[in-house]
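Q: Mind making up any chain with structure tokens?
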Amino acid sequence: MTPNRAEFRQVAGSWKTEAEFAAKAQRMRSSLGLEALLVTRSEEGMTLFTRGNVLHVPAHAREVYDVSGAGDTVIATLGVKLAFGEKLPDAVRAANVAAGIVVGKLGTAVVTPDELAAAQALAV
């Protein structure tokens, strides 16, 4: 499940601290019986919640031109990476990089495998 920050807030309610955000996310993950909950957080990156673990990945966008399709890019990249056997944290990092690429393009855009590979090499 990959809600964005606003969608998560609509369901879970607002929070004032990171600890409160994490507690709400873990409660939601657990109550829905999810293995993982990934909340995309715009310029703050994204945060993955699994049982007993939280992984925050900062945003990789350099300049943001258009956020259209960024969430779809995250889900698509996660799906492809997981289908090819990558572990969830690595797939999340790749999805974050991919989203950073597409928001740097005008209009609804795609990320190519070559773009993703080059950007991931730079992000290491």
About this structure: The helical segments are 5-12, 18-31, 70-83, 88-102, 113-123. The first helix runs from residue 5 to 12. The chain has a mean pLDDT of 91.
